[in-house]
Records
---
Amino acid sequence: VLHIAQGGASGSIGWLTNPASQVSSHFFITKSGQIYQLVAITDTAWANGLRWAGQWLTPTGKPVKPRWPEIIRGKNPNGYTISIEHEGKSGESLTQAMVEAQNKLLIWIAQQLDWSTYAAGKNLIGHGDINPVDKPFCPGKAFDLGIIAIRASQGLAPTADRITEDASIIAPARATPEQMIARIVGKPHGEYALFDIDTIVRGYFGCAQPVGVDPLVCIAQMIHETGNLTSYWSQRPRRNPAGIGVTGAPGAGVSFDSWVDDAIPAHVGRLLAYALPVGAGTPAQKELITLAMGYRLLPDKCRGSAPTLRLLGSGPNKVDGCGWAGDGDGEGQSYGARIAAIMNQIRGL
Ligand SMILES: [Zn+2]
C-alpha cells in the first residue's frame, strides 16, 4: 500500500516512530531516494487500518466502502498489508531518486514474498483504495499505480531468469553464438581477431551441443579462466582454453595445436567427465570424455563430482582433490558464481 506522508522526511519519520502517534509504516522513502525500514514486514504497521462492525468503518468511525477487491471481510487490513510512505505532499511529482528507490523496494518486497509480478489494484494499491473516505488524496495522482506495477514487474522478470551457480553443465544452450561473440569482442581479447573468436565460439557450439553440454557454460568458463582470451596460456601456440593442467608450477600446462580440433574437445570432454560418473552417458559423450582424458586424466574418484557450476569449485566439491579450480580467487564469489555471473552478462541480465 503506497502512502504520501504530507510532510518532510525527518518530521514524518519522527511521528511514525513515536508510540504516542499510534501510526507507523513498514517503509519510508525520502525525496533523495533513501529507504528507511521502520517495521519488519512480518510485523504489523498501523498505516491503513479499518474497523469492522457489520460494515467497514474508518478509524474516525465513518462508514466506508473500500475499493480494494482483495480486502478480507471483517479483518483489519493492517494485519495483511505492507505500507510504504513517501516524503512530500499529495499531487507533488516524485523525484527520479524516489522513483528508483520505490522500484527497488517493490522488487525486494516481491522477492521476500515470492511474488513474480505486481498488478495495480490487486497486490499494489494506494491508501485511498482502502479508505476513500478519509484518505482519497493518499498517495495522490502523482502515483500512477499501473506504471509503477509494470516497472517493478519488469524488474522481477530477469531475476526469475537469472542463472545461478546451481545451473547444470548438461543443458540446452542458454545464449546464442552472437551474444557470446559480442561479449568477448567487447573487452580486450589478446591476440585474437574477430574472425578467430567467431571460429572459437562456433567451434564450442559444434562440439558441445551434440553431447548435451551448454556451450554458454564452456564459453563463460573459458572467459573466466583466460581473462577473456588475454592470459599467457590462452595465446597461440598454447591455446589452452581453461587452465587445463596449469598449476602455477613453472612450465606446467597443456598446449593445443588447434582450438577447434584439440582445445575445445578437450575442454568440453573434461566438463562432461566432471558432470557424469564413470560408465554414464551416451556413446558420443563417452567418446568425447575418452578423448579429453587423453590430454589430461581426471581421476575416477572425481568423475561425476560436479554436475553443476557450484561443484566445479574445489570448496563446494565434496570429493577431496577434485574441483576444477579454487574458490579463493573470486573477490568473495565462488568459482561457480563467477561463471554464472559471466553467463548472465552474456545474456544481458
Ligand atoms: Zn496513507
Note: Residues 3, 127, 135, 138 surround zinc ion (CB under 6 Å).
---
Amino acid sequence: MPHRSPTARAICAALLVLAGIEARAGAQPPQAAAPTRIGDALPPWTPGTLDIHQIATGRGNSALIVFPDGTALLVDAGGTAAEIPQSEPHPDGSRSPGEWIARYAKRHLADSAAGIDYAMLTHFHSDHIGAIADVARGVRIGTIIDRGFPDYAYPAPLEDPVSMAYRRFVEGERARGLVVERFRPGARDQIRLRRNAAAYPAVEVRNIIGNGEAWTGTGTATRQLFPTLASTPRPDWPNENMLSLGIRIAYGAFRFYTGGDLPGTGEPGFPAWHSAEALVAPLIGRVDVHVVNQHGSMGEETAPFQQALASPVVIIPSWAPSHPAPDVLKRMVESRLPPTERSIFATEMRDATKIVIGQRVSALAGPPGHVVVRVEPGGGRYWVMVLSNADESDRVVAVKGPFVAGAGR
Ligand SMILES: [Zn+2]
C-alpha cells in the first residue's frame, strides 16, 4: 500500500495554504446548536436536515443520503478489491471497502438499527456494485433498485463475472426478504420518504434516466434517448456506462443530481448519441450540486452538461489516479459558462494525479476526503464539508458555505 511521504504532505499543505483554500474557519455553522469547527467531528444529522455523503474509500463510488425524515438511500456500493493496484484504500486496507462503507453508514444514519431503506446501483461495474454484499452484511438494506431486475438481459444477458456475482447475491438475499426492483425512469414515487413523508412535502426524488430511457419533464412520461437495438449495429450498442441510472433530489429550492458513469463524449466516428451527457442534460435542468459522471475520467463536464446544470458545487467521485482527467478538470476550472464561481470537491487526489494536473489542483475547494453536503431544514441553504478519511473520527477538515439554494435560477 503506497503512503504519502511527510515531504509530499508538507508540499501539499503549503500549496493549499498558498491557494487560500485551507479550511474556512469563518464559515457559519450549519446548526447553531452544533457548531462545526475544523477539527470537530461532524455534528449528527437532525430531523429536517438533508445530508448527502460522498464516501471516500479510495476503491469505488458510494454515497449515503439521509433524507429529512431519516429515510436513507445508498447510491452505489463500489469496491474494487486488490485487482486495481493503483488504488489506495481508506482508512486503510485492514477492511474491505464494503465494511468501511457499512461502518460509515451506521455512524451517520438517523437510526443505525433501521438501516438503509434503499440501495440504488447505477450500473454493473465493480467500482459501483462490487462491495454490495459486504455492505449488506454490515448494515440492513431494505430495497435494492437496479437497472436489470428481474431478467438482467438488457441490452444482452449480463453474464460477466461481476454481474453474475451480484445476481447470485440478489437471489440469495431475496430468499431472506430483501426487496429488489427495476428502476422506473420518470417515476417520483420509487424512492420516497418512508418514515414521515407528510412532514416534508418539499422533498422529491425524481428518476431521471436509466437504460437510456429518460424523463421528459412532463408527468412521469419518458422517451428513449438511444435508437432501438434492432436498428443499431451491435458494435454501436450502448455500453454499460451509458445505461447508468440517474436521479435528481429536490428539497425546497435545493436540487442535486447524481448519475453513475454516463459518458461525456463518444469516441470519434461513433454515433452522436454516444455523447450521453448532451442528451440527458436538458432533462435534468439547473441544480445546486452535482456529482461528476464517470469519475471525471474521460471527456465529462461537456459544455451542454455545464450549461444545463450550472451547478455552483461540483463533486468529483474520484478514487483512481486517472480521476479526474486533466482535460475534465480544465473544462470545469476554465469554463466561461455560469456560474462564475464553481466550488469543486474531490473524494480522492492521488500524488500521481497531482503530478499530471499540476497547478490546477489548487483550484479545488478543499482537500480530498468524504464530501458531505448538509442542507438545512426547508432546503434554503447548504454547506459543504470535507471529513477526514484517514480514520473513522469523521473530523471536519474543510467547510464551505453557506450557499443559497436556487441562487441564479
Ligand atoms: Zn465507475
Note: The pocket of zinc ion is lined by residues 61, 125, 127-128, 261, 295 (CB under 6 Å).
